[in-house]
Write a structure and sequence with these properties.
six-stranded parallel sheet; 2 domains; alpha/beta; four-stranded antiparallel sheet; Rossmann fold; 21 helices; Isoleucyl-tRNA Synthetase, Domain 1; binds 5'-O-[(L-methionyl)-sulphamoyl]adenosine
Length: about 525
């Protein structure tokens, strides 16, 4: 037995498996950026992390998108999938598994899971009547619809009437069990507003839902009746399980669940909350599997107040945005400016202003001016400081001593904006500290020790800030670290974990005068605001 493996702490998280009806937009990038930040943070904590993303390729929506272009569905999916993979590359996403629901291994997992639920007596045949939104791949209540029988989420799309024989999953049987589970696991659904939404939905009484479709070819056949195709959501959620298989493992549930199950965190948008917080746990209960730890439903990115999306056609091209401004900028803006869990609007001028203020002015200039002063007043060496020489009430040390723990808690709560704000408070205090202390005049007065104490304190603050922001802006953090004399690349998972673990680097006072400072170079170039004439 391998004791090391037994003792390893794992953390598994997922993004949704994205529909491939079109190339990805910034909305799909949003969840994946957040997931990557969590994964990087968890790795710095020393955990073995598995970040799962991928694509959801079956169903009517994809079948129709392919048909519109005169393509076979598989060929169509194969053409779209690379655009997701290359977006993750430009956004500097370090995923571990890319799960495609058309993978033959996934078929095996779905069949086995289906038989467990079937043998448990939770699947039966019935008549499905109702309004169906193909874009959501979901039946809607009549009272939810907008005028003209339009979907409340895909507001330009009319829902379609369906009246057909389907197989149903006995969701109603799990009402009490689910309610008990929500009670005993108050952190299962987050944020609290989403939890309340789910609790209220469930308390109205759960209806069984249909898990098969007729007149649809693009999907897996229902194992017990090949005239029916399995409902895309039943198949898609299981994509998370398939993703857990080691690349060369035989595709069965035992192998899939062996090392990584249960999943620690599902990151999703609020529109697919019900599937993840109600249907999914009930399906897992039926199949006798333990449940995930946490489902977090974030808000929508809007443009001019409307949900950005493929269906409405008001999308923002993430690749273009990254090309113009770089991946760190895009990652930083979305996580710092929008409270994760709430909706947020994108505006390019605001985007530029935030980056200039935080990264170019506050952080970038701070490093640059301090390094230049160190060059001038300390012969370019990190001042040699005994930690006790800086009193605990030094304003920067006072923040720095507890900052690591505060930022850690914010990352754990997925309050990325709070992580950024907490770090910025140290950066801003550092700028103020330099202005107040005026090391240039201390130097003129011959107060070398004081000059050195001021400059050390500020450099150490910049270092700590860079480290704590490294899950969000790994490139900039790496550049700062290099200028401070470390050879650390925060994109190198193994290296940054071994060389810069959170337990040491998130604490105050590790900068030493053994570090050979690099040449001061701007770490973030100010962005010019585009002319608006
Ligand atoms: N295929 C399903 C998920 C299956 S998971 C087993 C799906 N795909 S999707 O491509 O339509 O959406 C994926 C995610 O992108 C959802 O979490 C959705 O909330 C998110 N977003 C789509 N548009 C968005 C915005 N405008 N803003 C933020 N996120 C949005 O649903």
């Amino acid at each position: 037995m391998n004791l090391v493996d037994k003792a390893e702490k794992t953390f598994v998280l997922t993004t949704p498996l994205y529909y491939v009806n079109d190339i990805p937009h910034i909305g799909s990038a949003y969840t994946t950026i957040a997931a990557d930040v969590v994964a990087r943070f968890q790795r710095l904590q020393g955990n073995k992390v598995l970040l799962i993303t991928g694509t959801d390729e079956h169903g009517q929506k994809i079948e129709r998108s392919a048909a519109t272009l005169g393509k076979a569905p598989q060929e169509f999916c194969d053409q779209i999938v690379p655009s997701f993979i290359s977006l993750w590359e430009v956004l500097n996403i370090q995923y571990d598994r890319f799960s495609r629901t058309t993978d033959p291994r996934h078929h095996a997992i779905v069949q086995e899971f289906f038989s467990r639920v079937w043998e448990n007596g939770d699947i039966y045949q019935g008549q499905q009547k109702g309004w169906y939104c193909v874009s959501c791949e979901e039946f809607k209540e009549e009272r939810e619809l907008l005028d003209g029988k339009r979907c409340p989420i895909h507001t330009t799309k009319e829902v379609e009437w369906r009246d057909e024989q389907n197989y149903f999953f006995r969701l109603s049987k799990y009402q009490t069990k689910l309610e008990e589970f929500y009670q005993s696991h108050p952190d299962f659904i987050q944020p609290a507003s989403r939890r309340n939404e789910v609790l209220s939905f469930v308390s109205q009484g759960l209806q069984d839902f249909s898990i098969s479709r007729v007149n649809l070819d693009w999907g897996f056949p229902v194992p017990v009746d090949s005239k029916h195709t399995l409902y895309v959501w039943f198949d898609a959620l299981l994509g998370y399980v398939t993703a857990l298989l080691e690349p060369d493992a035989e595709p069965n549930l035992t192998n899939a669940l062996e090392r990584w199950w249960p999943i620690n965190l599902h990151l999703i948008g609020k529109d697919i909350l019900r599937f993840h917080a109600v249907y999914w746990p009930a399906m897992l209960m039926s199949a006798g599997l333990s449940l995930p730890e946490r489902v977090f439903g974030h808000g929508f990115l809007t443009k001019d107040g409307q949900k950005m999306g493929k269906t409405l056609g008001n999308t923002l091209d993430p690749v273009g945005l990254v090309k113009r401004y770089g991946s760190d900028s895009v990652r930083y803006y979305f996580l710092k400016e929008i409270e994760f869990g709430k909706d947020g609007d994108f505006n390019e001028i605001r985007f530029i202003n935030v980056l200039n203020a935080d990264l170019a002015n506050d952080l970038g200039n701070l490093l640059n001016r301090t390094l230049n002063m160190v060059k001038k007043y300390c012969a370019g060496n990190v001042p040699s400081i005994v930690q006790e020489a800086i009193p605990a009430n030094n304003p920067l040390k006072a923040i720095g001593l507890t900052l690591g723990e505060r930022v850690k808690q914010a990352y754990e709560a997925l309050a990325f904006n709070q992580s950024c704000e907490a770090v910025l408070s140290l950066v801003q205090a550092s700028n103020k500290f330099i202005d107040d202390q005026a090391p240039w005049s201390l130097y003129k007065q011959g107060k070398q020790e004081e000059v050195e104490a001021v400059l050390y304190t500020v450099l150490e603050s910049v270092r700590l800030a860079a480290y704590l922001l490294s899950p969000i802006i790994p490139n900039i953090s790496g550049d700062i670290y290099q200028q401070l004399g470390w050879k650390i690349d925060f994109n190198d998972q193994k290296e940054s974990l071994i060389v810069a673990p959170f337990a040491t680097h998130a604490t105050w006072g590790i900068l030493s005068n053994q570090q050979q400072l690099g040449t001061p170079q701007p770490i973030f170039k100010r962005i010019e605001t585009p002319k608006t004439d």
